[in-house]
Fold this protein.
Amino acid sequence: MKVYTEYLTLQTSKEKEIVNITTLVEKAIKKSGVKEGLCLVNSMHITSSVFINDEEYGLKQDFLRWLEEIAPMKPDYQHHRTGEVNADAHLKRTIMGREVVVAVTRGELDFGPWEQIFYGEFDGKRPKRVLIKILGE
Amino acid sequence: MKVYTEYLTLQTSKEKEIVNITTLVEKAIKKSGVKEGLCLVNSMHITSSVFINDEEYGLKQDFLRWLEEIAPMKPDYQHHRTGEVNADAHLKRTIMGREVVVAVTRGELDFGPWEQIFYGEFDGKRPKRVLIKILGE
Amino acid sequence: MKVYTEYLTLQTSKEKEIVNITTLVEKAIKKSGVKEGLCLVNSMHITSSVFINDEEYGLKQDFLRWLEEIAPMKPDYQHHRTGEVNADAHLKRTIMGREVVVAVTRGELDFGPWEQIFYGEFDGKRPKRVLIKILGE
């Protein structure tokens, strides 16, 4: 059995931003030497996400606008009594998901034609970490 | 270590439809020979889902109606500037989830009494693939 | 390869409640003897969740209030024709997620500074089970 661990550090320039990290995951799979197995990719923070969708500029804008509709920034969250102002980021991350588990087949990401892995930042402009853990043979 | 990969192809008759795929996953587990391990089941498309819930006709209708409320079909998504008209399907799939990871124990799906695996199609009437990857011993 | 399985039984005192189960998962990892691997934690019921977020009292209240807004309790779900009255719990669990997959590194949960594992109950006051499956070496 092979197990491989890697940590990415990402810092977005905007507070809310969607970043394609597919090639970083592909590189980790190559480094792992795993040919057949499972690969976990997760945000290590609770105000950002890792998810799979389509690399299309308009769609990324649609995601951010939609998240603002169903999990809006507003002052009256109870979490804000702690001095934090980012409760909406916790909710947005919940919608988009913390992690993905993807298959590794013949040493590659086993993906459909449009699948791409994204980091979704909802409380950014500071360094945050993503964990990649690959298990297989 | 045993690793097993299988691809299902599904084509729904409706544009939006929920299909129970539990027995197809059970068959894959039998074929894999894995007695103890983890099983990933994911949609390979970004407008459909794999999720776990209850096999009950009314509930499936409730899911589809609710998704239409919180992630509605409408013309003014930016994704539609590409000529696509399915931005709502990307959002609906995000709510329902891309994948499930399930435990295999003593050669069977290790499920609670009501757990069933579903394929959720939000842009259907054409062949789409689901990946099953099983890792264990 | 080591594979370890454990079942937790939880019974909340409220119908809707969020319970921190991080130390229970940590204990299972110790018992498993796995130093490097993956750990699946999932609700075995379809009206409750396992998810990762922040241990902060106000935020937990925000989650419950927000879920009531986007997946409200109301009488007119089709699922209720079966005699059930908990369709909202199925929807709330869908938002919060069924499962988490977490990395085990050097025998510990490989977590960011604020990550904690929660059981989210949306139809409680009765015993329900959570499965922990750990695979690695």
In short: Chain A touches chain B through 33 residues (CB under 8 Å). The helical segments of chain A are 22-32, 57-70, 87-96. The first strand of chain A starts at residue 2 and ends at 10. Chain A has one domain: 2-116+130-136.
